[in-house]
Every structure is written in structure tokens, then in C-alpha cells.
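User:
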Amino acid sequence: MDVKQLPPGRVIEAVDVLCEAFVDYPVMRFVIGRGGSAYVPLLRTLIHFFTVARFLRNDVVLAATAAEDEVVATANVVLPGERMAPAALEKERDAVWGKLGDAARRRYEAYGEASRKFDIKQPHYHLAMVGVRRSHTGRGLARALLDALHEMSRRDSRSCGVTLNTEDPRNVSIYEHLGYQVIGQTQISNDLRTWSFYRADE
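Assistant: Predicted structure:
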């Protein structure tokens, strides 16, 4: 397996992996708020936006690739520092919420507001999403992506470490095992709780 940074021209490959990995993830179900035949196309719309946003902001999309350079795991990473959103991103955002609707946008903003309560002040990397194809789970690919991210942060003099959130309680002990500490948690709805983590650079 090889871990590398994906170029913008391969965004669809990253989206394919993340859609497979996040199809039943609590935040996606919460934000989209609809099931049935509408759910999967709306999920793809949302994940496509999240991934395109990383490219438009000049952030990083990492990928683990298998034979013939197939993307089998990927991670969306936000780089340290505040930056203005480019006009192209605002256009993408308006298009996404035009498809998902105002209620979905309000739920997404409620999630964002809740998770931001535990933001750390110092510049840092943020793992926005990490996913692995089901055919390749159990092979340490998420760990390989995280290791690459941790190394990026260590080498960046601006960064003090890495943050992330999870809404799956099964992930809490996994991230703690990888050196992350819970810095906050909150209940967003009856069915959605989020945990915020921070891992200081070693």
C-alpha cells in the first residue's frame, strides 16, 4: 500500500470511498434527515461537497492506494490557519443546500456549532473525514493515513497537533489507543452525540 496526497482531478475516487464508508454514519443520517431512495444520492452530494472543499481551500486529501493505483482509503484534512473561503466554494455550498434543503442546512450548522465549542486555540491539523472501502477494512489503512497525518503535523512548525471528531462511540477507545485525548463531548440530538479529540505532536 502507498499513502500519498491526491490531486484535484481524482476527487471522485475519494468521494466513492467516503460514500461507501459513511453510508450509515450518524452525522450523515442526522444532516440528510431522509431515508429511502433519496438518501444515497444526497449522501453523495454532501460528501462530494466536503471533499471538493478541501481542494478549493488548498487543504489535503490523503489516499492509500492498492494495486494499479486504486484508491481504497482516504482522509480529508484541514490545514492550520484561518483562510477566506474562495468564491467557488461559496457557489458549491449554495448548490449543495439547494439540493438538501434548509432543514438539512440547519441541522448541519447545529452540528458544527456544537463541535466547535471544543476547538483548540493553537494552529493545528484537523482530520475532517477518514474512510476505508469495505473490501479493505482490517488492513491498517486508516492507521496508515493517520500516521501520515501525524507526521505532516510534526514536520509543520505552525502546528501543535491534530484534532478530530467522532459520532460513533465505538471509535472512542480506538482514537484513545492512538494517542488522542477527549477534550469535550456533547449531545446534539436524541440520536447524535459527538466526541472531540486532540493529539499533541510528540
